[in-house]
Amino acid sequence: MPPTELLRSETVKETEISKHTISVLVDNESGVLARVIGLFSGRGYNIESLTVAEVDADAHQSRITVVTSGTPMVIEQIKAQLSRLVPVHKVSDLTLAGPSVERELALVKVIATGEKRVESLRIADIFKARAVDATNNSFVYEIIGSPEKIDAFIKLMAPLGLSEISRTGVAAISRGTLTM
Amino acid sequence: MAERILSGSEVVLQALADQGVEVVFGYPGGAVLPLYDEIFKQNRIRHVLVRHEQAAVHAAEGYARSTGKVGVVLVTSGPGATNAVTGLTDALMDSIPVICLTGQVPTHLIGNDAFQEADTTGITRPCTKHNYLVKNPDRLARTMHEAFHVASSGRPGPVVIDLPKDILVGKAPYLEPSQVQHRTYNPVVKGERSQIEEALEMLASAKKPILYCGGGVINSGLQACKLLTEFTRMTGAPITLTLMGLGAFPASDKQYLGMVGMHGTYESNMSMHDCDVMIAIGARFDDRVTGNLDFFAPHSQKIQIDIDQSSINKNVPVDIGIVGDVGHVLEDMIKIWKAKQYKIDANALDSWWKEIEGWRGKHCLSYKQPKDVIKPQHVIRRVHELTRDRKTYITTDVGQHQMWAAQHFGFEHPYEWMTSGGLGTMGYGMPAALGVQVAHPDATVVCFTGDASIMMNIQECATMTQYRLPIKTVILNNRYMGMVRQWQQLLHGSRYSESYSETLPDFVKLSEAFGFTGMTCNNPADLDDAIKKMLEIDGPVILDVAVDDKENCYPMIPSGKPHNEMLLGQETDGNEAIDSDEGMVLV
Q1: pLDDT tens string B31-45
Q2: Where is the Thiamine pyrophosphate enzyme TPP-binding domain (chain B) (predicted)?
Q3: Domain match, B337 and B411 both
Q4: Arch. (CATH architecture) of A18-97
Q5: ipTM, 2 decimals?
Q6: Residue B130: closest CA among chain A residues belongs to which residue?
Q7: Distance spanning both ends of chain A, measured CA to CA
Q8: What confidence score (pLDDT) does residue B559 get?
C-alpha cells in the first residue's frame, strides 16, 4: 500500500464557512424566482434570506437579494451557477464588493396588557420602532434596521407577549458610488 | 418591413426551417395536432416517428452529437413531456444541444388539471438549460430563435419550448432569426489573454505535464479537435481523454494514453496521479474521472479551460481557470506558444515518457481469448477491425459493454462516438443510433448494447424498420446486468440481488417479428463471419453474441480510491473483493 497520508492533495481546501449577501439582477419573467430557488435547493445551497421585487418596470427587471453561507468554493459556485441562468443579467457579491448597507423591515405583533404592554412600548421607543396598529391589548410594531437589530428587538419582545412576526428579508446595496 | 402574420404552427415550422432544421424526432398527440397538420402540409422538414418520447430525445442527441447541429424533438403535452424528461436530463448532463417542443393545453385551461396537462416548465426546469412557456403569440417567433441560440451557444444543452394549443392555432407574427437578439445570454468565447500566457508558461516549465481533455473539445467543434491535436503534438505532452472526449484526439497516436477514470487505462490514471502540471480542456473533473478527490493528482498545478464558469473550481480547485470556448483558447495558445518559442524541457519530458512506458508495459487492457467462449472485449475489437475501411459511428447503452467499447474501440475522429456519460441512461443506445443513421444514411452505425440495456427501448426496433435504418445492434449478452453484477461481486459479497436476466427474449425471433434480421453467435471461431455478415446485410440487424458471463470490466478504480490504486483484474482473476465502507456508500 502506498503511503496515502503523504499523498494527500497539496491544495488546501478552505473550509471556513462565511455569510455572503448576493444581489442578482434578473428579467422579471415567469418562473425566474423558481429557477433561483430551484438552483439553491437542487444543489444543496443554503438560503438564509431572500427578497425580490421589480426595480425597473420599463426594462422588466427585478432585483433578488439572497443571503447565503458556505465555504469560499461554494460561494464561488453559487455565483457562477446564478450567472449562467439565462434570465440573469448580473450577479454581485456585496460582501466582497466593499462596504454595503443592509436593511430589513419587520412587523412584530405583541399581545399584552398592563406593565408588559408599557414595557414593550418603551423598548420600541429605544429601537425607534413605530406602532402601526394598536388595540387595547395589542400592538403591531414596525421596525427597520439590520437583521441583527431586528433579532435583538424580537428577543426583547419575547417575554412581553410576542405573538407573531413578519419579516421582509434583507434588501442590500453597496455604499458610495459603486453600482451593480 | 411589414410583419408577416401566420398561424402559430406555421411560425414554429418557419422558424425551424430558418434555423436550418432538416429533421424532427417526435410523437404526436392531442395538444400538438396543429403542428402535425402543418408538418403534413410541407416537405422542408422531415419527421421521424419514434415509438416512445424518451427515444425521440435520445435520437435527437445522436443526431446532434454526430453532426454538431441542434437536435429537435416534438412531443405532446402531459405524458409526452414527462416521458421526454430522462432524455432531457441526459442531454443536460452531456451538454448536447437539443430543442424540445412540447404541446400544452390551451392557455385558458393551464392550471385546471386538464386532460394531459402537466406543469411541463416546472417539471423540466432543473433538467434543461432553459425553458419557455409561450403564452403570448407575439413572443412565439422570438422564443423559437432565442431557444436555438441558448441551446447551441456557450455550454450547449437542452431547451424546452412549451406551446399551448391555442397559441398554435391562433395568429402570430413571424420574425426572421436576424431580427432577434438575446438580451442577457451572450457567453464569453475568448479566453483572457494574460491567463492563457500564464498557463502556457506553467506548462512550458512542467516536468511531468498531461493534457486531460473532455467532451467540451468535441462540443467546440471539428476545428477545436484539430487544434487540440496540433497543440498536443507541439508540446509533446501525453494526452488522455474522458469518456465524453473520445475521438477528440486520434486513439492511434503515440501521445495518447487511453481513457482516464474509473475504467480508464493504467498509464492514463497513473500519469494523472503523478503529473506536475495538468491542463484540463473542456473536462469537468467528474467523480468518475477523479476518484477520491483528497488524493487526486496530489503534486500538480492545474489549469482548466471551460466555457462554463461554474465548471471551474467546482470539484477540484485549479490554479488557473480560463473561461472561454476551447477552440478559441486553443487557437490563442498555439499562437502564443509559437511566438514565445516555448518548449518543455526535453530531458524531463523524455524521462516522463519513460515512466509512462513502464506503466504502458502493464498492458492493462489485455485479455486472453479462449477457444470455447467469446470474450466481450474481443467482440468490440473485432467490430473495430472489420469496420476500419468504412465510416463508422458507434453508440452504446450503459454498463460493462459501454466501458469495453470505450476501452477497446479506437476512436480516430470526433463525432463518431455517442454514449450516455453523465446520466448513464440505459436505453440510450438504440434510439441514439436512429438519430445518427438519419443524419448519416450511408454510414455504418453500430450500437453496442447489453442484454439488459436493450430491453429499455426495444420498441425502437419498429422505428428502425419503418425508416429502413440499417443499424447494426450488437448485444454483448452475458445474461446479467453486468456492471451491477460486477459491483455486487466486488462490494456486496457476490450476492447477485436481482441482476440476473431470468427471461430474455429470443432476439432472433424478436428481430424477425419487427421485420429485420436477427443473428446469434456463441463460438469464437464464428465471430468474424458473423460480424462480416451483419455488416453486409442491407438493413437493420441485431447480432446477439453470447459472451463470457463471468468477465468483469478492468482496470477499475474502486469508488473512494485514488488513481494509483487501480485494480488491474489480471492478477486477481477478477475475484478481488473491495473492503471499504467509504466505497460502499459511493455510487
Answers
A1: 999 999 999 999 999
A2: 397-545
A3: no
A4: 2-Layer Sandwich (3.30)
A5: 0.90
A6: A86
A7: 54
A8: 82
